[in-house]
């Protein structure tokens, strides 16, 4: 079976590179972060508008 | 390894007892919720003079306090038995004592609510005064949960003794952290109930300090929501990686985030009291800062979750920035339900930041936006994760297996829930921004043009709420099947392993004396001066009122 | 403890944003005076009717274009419940309760306060536009909670 082997060898390769590729994770959390900022800023401006 | 793979049958019975009560509460509380959205649409009135507020109190107490506390304690008992070994007879007996105290307390509380003696909502703000039986019932629930907490501590201590110098199993560690959080925060609600509300409702004291009572309630009320959330995080951190076939991203970071929750989820109650007259704005702002600190462990969790998914997807040969998303087991309800819960936590977190932002709270405070907010956090993120957990936990405990049909039904259930919640919570958020108040029966406020604008949103809430009630029926069908009718067999209690790339967990995490010390210090910093101020500059106290 | 490089970037950005938010609301609150309502004045809730200014609730002119609006909340009404405010007026709204906790929300504005027995709560707003606002009780106070309301009209000065 190819898959278990893949699982077994991959982390070792990663160990030498020190950290796994997490580009997608970085992109995802930043999308999340921008959504949080967008919401917060929208309500902040609503507050200012109602002052 | 010292871990047992299967929860002992006797421990399983204890855990299942809690889960039965939790789902009975879901059925009754969910029905109450359906009545509420229908009433608020303006198209329906309750028969036989039943009060909207009696139904609302039932809904809040059953779903906010009973469903959550029972499911969490049952889940944690199972998780500890699974990861730290079978309970001793003594631990199990005390677990049952806790269960029965909580159950009797719940029955008592529910009785006084349903006969209309306690329409005070689940926040029971003085000087509205409920029947003493309501407060006594709540006391039994809390004390019962304390007993369960101490049995968990005893079990953990036994494991530590048997495994000196070792890092405890992650699920056990997390359960202990959550119960410490619960014990420290329930001291506040116990204080207001036992020292203030109960003697006052019995007529032993005449008057009550309203602000002190509210402050003690919210000292408990915010960590309460983290007590709900942390078991969901346990599932996300430990169980989900195993279900998808991946690894835990980092054991140490998971523990760190739980310790940060312990620190920062308690000294933040003022962010529920931002618009109150009796608290200095400086101290409100201090607690706003601390509230923002509690966001940090959730930011860490978001990263860990995406990383777990991406590492797994890439190990399966995924390419591109988001190719790993396609490798996830979308057809497995044990993954799908909690995953949808995670997605809903993004708008939930965004709303939470707004709520806690000092003066921005004026835009949303006590509007139905807030109701929309906690129907994302609790009623979607946490509850969908609990449902997802129930899909393997119940068959594991009852020695059955989930059939393909039930799994498919569970996927449908999740979709139904997501759609219903988009309608209900979405329209609550928008109506809230227009000013529609929460916790109010249908009213046009004397045909005010503004109030008439809210009605379409209330109809959307009724549609969403009805869809959600269908979701409740579906989950009850699945749970009943898993508990009583599913084919016999072995179901795994999935517990993830740590990724090889992750570093070893430092032992410092087990230093509870240090963590509790810091927790207490933060509480004292945030609360001592404003609390003394409240007592020293207190106005005359209030007599009790029964205005329903 | 080892933390992935990307996680460091994310936490730096995330925690940084939290501090930016805190700074914005902090400056707005402490330097520009946009504090949430925190009046800190106490009152005997059973003697509200005898205590000025709540013995004569209503709109009082206190200066050039400056007003005080004193309102008494009780189950399930505000006194007064029909209020006219001249356009452009800077109004300090003082409100207290004779019985249980009430809310005081002028729907669609930043006027939103908790009204608790024993305390006066207060908020100042300038009314620059004519129109009508609905005041609603947004904290549960009993069977008639959803009937508790008042109307504010902002009108052109004669």
TrEMBL record, chain A:
Residues passing through the membrane, by range: 25-47
Domain of life (superkingdom): Bacteria
Alphabetized UniProt keyword annotations: Membrane, Transmembrane, Transmembrane helix
Annotated protein name in UniProt: Subunit I/II of b(O/a)3-type cytochrome C oxidase
UniProtKB/TrEMBL annotation, chain B:
GO biological process: aerobic respiration
Record CDD domains: ba3-like_Oxidase_I
Keywords: Electron transport, Heme, Iron, Membrane, Metal-binding, Respiratory chain, Transmembrane, Transmembrane helix, Transport
PROSITE patterns xrefs: COX1, COX1_CUB
Cross-referenced Pfam families: COX1
InterPro entries given in the database record: Ba3-like_Oxidase_I, Cyt_c_oxase-like_su1_dom, Cyt_c_oxase-like_su1_sf, Cyt_C_Oxase_1, Cyt_c_Oxase_su1_BS
Transmembrane domains' residue ranges: 20-38, 50-73, 94-115, 135-157, 169-197, 217-240, 252-270, 282-306, 335-354, 374-394, 415-435, 455-479, 514-532
Topology term for the membrane: Multi-pass membrane protein
Sequence similarity: Belongs to the heme-copper respiratory oxidase family.
Protein name per its UniProtKB record: Cytochrome c oxidase subunit 1
Organism: [Anoxybacillus] calidus
UniProtKB/TrEMBL annotation, chain C:
GO molecular function terms noted in the UniProt entry: copper ion binding; cytochrome-c oxidase activity
A Pfam family it matches: COX2
Reaction catalysed by this enzyme: 4 Fe(II)-[cytochrome c] + O2 + 8 H(+)(in) = 4 Fe(III)-[cytochrome c] + 2 H2O + 4 H(+)(out)
Entry's transmembrane regions: 9-31
Keywords in alphabetical order: Copper, Membrane, Metal-binding, Transmembrane, Transmembrane helix
Chief localization: other
Keyword Repressor belongs to the record: no
Domain Cytochrome oxidase subunit II copper A binding stretches: 55-158
Gene Ontology cellular-component annotations: cell envelope; membrane
Superkingdom in the source lineage: Bacteria
InterPro entries: Ba3_CcO_II_C (IPR034214), CcO_II-like_C (IPR002429), Copper_CuA (IPR001505), Cupredoxin (IPR008972), NosZ/Cyto_c_oxidase_sub2 (IPR051403)
UniProt-annotated location(s): Cell envelope
Its job: Subunits I and II form the functional core of the enzyme complex. Electrons originating in cytochrome c are transferred via heme a and Cu(A) to the binuclear center formed by heme a3 and Cu(B).
Protein name per Swiss-Prot or TrEMBL: Cytochrome aa3 subunit 2
Species: [Anoxybacillus] calidus
């Amino acid at each position: 079976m190819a898959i278990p082997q893949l699982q077994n060898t991959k982390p070792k390769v990663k160990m030498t590179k020190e950290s796994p590729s997490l580009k997608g994770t970085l992109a995802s959390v930043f999308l999340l972060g921008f959504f949080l900022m967008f919401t917060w800023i929208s309500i902040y401006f609503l507050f200012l508008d109602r002052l | 390894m010292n871990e047992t793979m299967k929860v002992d049958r006797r421990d399983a019975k204890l855990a299942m007892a809690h889960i039965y009560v939790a789902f009975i509460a879901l059925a009754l509380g969910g029905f109450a919720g359906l009545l509420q959205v229908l009433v608020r649409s303006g198209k329906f009135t309750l028969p036989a003079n039943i009060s909207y507020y009696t139904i609302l109190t039932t809904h809040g107490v059953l779903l906010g306090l009973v469903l959550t506390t029972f499911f969490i304690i049952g889940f944690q008992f199972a998780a500890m038995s699974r990861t730290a070994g079978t309970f001793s007879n003594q631990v199990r007996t005390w677990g049952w004592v806790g269960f029965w105290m909580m159950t009797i307390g719940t029955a008592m509380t529910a009785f006084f609510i349903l006969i209309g003696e306690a329409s005070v909502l689940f926040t029971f703000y003085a000087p509205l005064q409920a029947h003493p039986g309501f407060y006594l019932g709540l006391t039994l629930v809390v004390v019962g949960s304390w007993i369960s907490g101490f049995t968990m501590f005893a079990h953990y201590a036994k494991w530590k003794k048997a495994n000196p110098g070792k890092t405890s199993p992650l699920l056990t560690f997390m359960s202990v952290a959550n119960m410490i959080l619960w014990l420290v925060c329930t001291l506040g609600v116990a204080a207001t109930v036992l020292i203030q509300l109960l003697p006052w409702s019995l007529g032993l004291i005449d008057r009550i300090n309203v602000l002190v009572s509210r402050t003690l309630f919210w000292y408990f009320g915010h960590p309460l929501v983290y007590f709900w959330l942390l078991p969901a995080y346990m599932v996300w951190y430990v169980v989900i990686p195993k279900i998808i076939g991946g690894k835990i991203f980092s054991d140490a970071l998971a523990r760190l985030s739980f310790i940060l929750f312990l620190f920062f989820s308690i000294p933040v109650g003022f962010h529920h009291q931002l618009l109150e007259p009796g608290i200095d704005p400086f101290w409100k702002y201090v607690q706003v800062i601390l509230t923002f600190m509690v966001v940090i462990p959730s930011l860490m969790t978001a990263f860990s979750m995406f990383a777990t998914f991406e590492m797994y997807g890439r190990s399966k040969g995924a390419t591109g920035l988001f190719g790993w998303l396609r490798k996830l087991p979308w057809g497995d309800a044990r993954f799908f339900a909690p995953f949808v819960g995670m997605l809903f936590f993004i708008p939930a977190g965004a709303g939470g930041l707004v709520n806690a932002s000092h003066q921005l709270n004026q835009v949303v405070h006590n509007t139905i936006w807030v109701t929309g907010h906690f129907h994302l956090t609790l009623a979607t993120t946490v509850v969908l994760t609990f449902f997802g957990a129930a899909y393997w936990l119940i068959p594991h405990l009852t020695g059955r297996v989930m059939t393909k049909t039930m799994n498919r039904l569970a996927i449908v259930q999740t979709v139904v829930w997501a759609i219903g919640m988009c309608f209900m919570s979405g329209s609550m958020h928008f109506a809230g921004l227009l000013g529609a108040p929460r916790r109010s029966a249908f009213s046009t406020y004397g045909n005010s043009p503004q109030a008439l604008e809210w009605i379409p949103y209330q109809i959307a809430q009724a549609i969403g709420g009805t869809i959600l009630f269908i979701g409740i029926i579906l989950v009850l069908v699945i749970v009943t099947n898993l508990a009583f009718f599913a084919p016999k067999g072995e179901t795994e209690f999935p517990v993830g392993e740590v990724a090889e790339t992750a570093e070893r967990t430092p032992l410092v995490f087990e230093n509870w004396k240090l963590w509790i010390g810091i927790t207490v210090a933060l509480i004292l910093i945030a609360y001592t001066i404003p609390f003394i101020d409240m007592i020293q500059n207190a106005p005359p106290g209030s007599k009790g009122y029964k205005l329903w | 403890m080892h933390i992935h490089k990307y996680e460091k970037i994310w936490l730096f950005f995330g925690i940084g944003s939290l501090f930016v938010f805190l700074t914005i609301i902090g400056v707005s609150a402490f330097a520009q005076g946009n504090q949430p309502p925190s009046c800190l004045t106490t009152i005997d809730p059973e003697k509200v009717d005898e205590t000025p200014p709540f013995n004569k609730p209503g709109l009082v002119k206190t200066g050039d274009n400056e007003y005080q609006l004193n309102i008494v909340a009780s189950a399930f009404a505000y006194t007064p419940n029909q209020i006219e405010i001249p356009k452009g007026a800077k109004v300090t709204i003082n409100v207290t309760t004779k019985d249980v906790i009430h809310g005081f929300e002028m729907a669609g504005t930043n006027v939103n306060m908790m009204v608790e027995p024993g305390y006066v709560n207060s908020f100042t707003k300038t009314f620059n536009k004519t129109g009508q606002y609905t005041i609603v009780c947004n904290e549960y106070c009993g069977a008639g909670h959803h009937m508790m309301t008042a109307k504010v009209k902002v009108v052109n000065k004669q």
